[in-house]
Amino acid sequence: MCHRVFPSVLIGKFAFGFTILFLAHLAAAQVDSSMPYAADPRDKRFGSVKEDWTTPALNSSSLQPVQPLVADISSHPEKYHTELIQLQWRFGDPIDLYVMKPSGVTNPPVILYLYSYPSETEIFRSEAWQKAATKDGFAAVGFMTALTGHRYHDRSVNDWFVSELQECLAVSAHDVQMVLNYLAQRGDLDMDRVGLAGEGSGASVGILASAVDPRIKALDVLDPWGDWPTWMAKSPFVPDDERANFVTPEYLKKVATLDPVDWLPKIQAKKFRLQDATFHDETPASIHAKLRNAVPAGAAIVTYNTMKEYTAAISNNQQMDWMYQQLRALPDPKAGTAVAAEHSHAKSGGAGPSNR
Description:
The protein has 356 residues and is an alpha/beta fold.
C-alpha cells in the first residue's frame, strides 16, 4: 500500500479538480472573482477562528463557515442528481463536498461516507458508486478527511495523516459536525435519519463524531484504527523508518484524548455496528480484540475471518442493507411511526459502496 508518496502525488492530480469543475459553472454560482484560493495570505475571513485539537467536540472551537460555493455537476434522469459544494470554515482548508440525491424522493434520509487514508475524491465521482449509493432512496454525502486527497496542500512534505494524527482526527470530527450543520440548513434532506458509514481512519473519525453529536442516528464502521500506543508500535501501515517518531511520550500524549477505543462506549448513535475484518493486518490482532470489547451494549458486531467471507458479505451491494434497515426503522417525528422497510433484509456486509 502506498503511504508517504500518496499526498505529494495528489498535489498535481487533485489540487485543481474543484477549480476546473467549478469554472464551468461560474455563472450559476455567481462567484466573486477576487475570492482567494486555498492558503492564500490575502484571505482574511478566518482571522477569528480558533480550533481545539484535543477534543472531537465543537464547544471549545470557533469555526466560521463562509458562503458555500455550489456547482451542479450532473443529473441522471429518474436516477439521481449530483452536486459538488465547496465548504470552508478555517483558513487554507476548502472542502469539496459531494451530495447525491435520488430522483423522485422528497427529503430522503442521508448517509455520510468517510473512507480511510489514503483515499481520493475520485470515488465520489464514480457513476457506479453514485448509482449504488442512491438506488434505495437514500441521499449520499462524501468528503475527504483532513490532509487527504485535495485537502493535502501548502504543507511540509514531512506532514501526513499519521504524523499529524491529532490534527487530522480532531479536524475531521469537527468537519463531520459542520457538514451536518450545512446539510440541515439546506432543508431538502431528512435530518432525523442520518447515518454515517466509515472505514479505517474514516471509521475512527466516525466514532469520535458520533460520541459528541447525537444527530448521527446510525453508525456503521469497518476496521477503525485505535489504541494508539499499540497501533503506532505494531501496525505495518506505519513506515519503519518513521515509527520511532510516533511512539514518543510527546506524540502519544497529543493523541491520547482522541483514541477511538476510549470514545466507543460514549457513542450516541441509536444503532451501531462494528465490522471487524480480523484478516486485515493494518490493525494488529490485539487491537481488534480491544475494539470489540469496547463496543457499547446492544451494538452489533460482525466478524470476517477471511477475505472470502468479507467479499461474500458485500456482494450485490449488501454492505448497506444494515444501514438502510436501521434508518428506515427510526420513528418519524412527524407521523410518530417507523418507516416500513422497502426491501427484504439481506445478510449484513461492509460499511458502504466498496472502496477496497
